[in-house]
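Contributing new records

If you add data, match the layout below exactly. Sequence lines come first and carry their own label; structure lines follow with theirs. Keep one chain per record. Anything else will be rejected by the validation script.
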Amino acid sequence: MSSLVKEELAKRLFGPRRRRLQEFIEVEGSGAGRCYLCAAVTKSEEVEICMVKHWRVDQEEKYEIVEKWFLKDLEMIDGKEADTDNPYFDMHFHKVYNLEAYSCASKYTFARTLSKLNEMYLKKDLKIVNFDDTYLNDDSIWSSNNRDCLVLMRICFYASNLLCLSLCPLS
């Protein structure tokens, strides 16, 4: 499903504006419809971060960019709490934007994407705080093209270990 949405966003919204959509995640928005946080690269190799509103009118899908920032203006991404499974994070531009991703895994996916785009195009000191570095780095054992599933698998692994430990008798 997400690949279809990505394809649709790329074709209808970013392609005509001559931008390459790199990644998107669903975030909580106000009102009807869905909201997506997108990272795209312009023809002049600037990285844009956009908030896109998605809604349906009759049988037609509509997309609109409602907020736009540049990666060069992003000072910090704060994952709130690295040791808990939560979808909340803040993006610090000239103002702090509080966001809620669809899942903790998608929050990490977006942070990884911004980190990679920063390395490729800006090479600036982008602060990424309150994220578990294991899930952000490509050199980790958990990295692959399907990172969301691997993050979820790692969380399940930790949860099963905690369950086993809690069932052990303390003699």
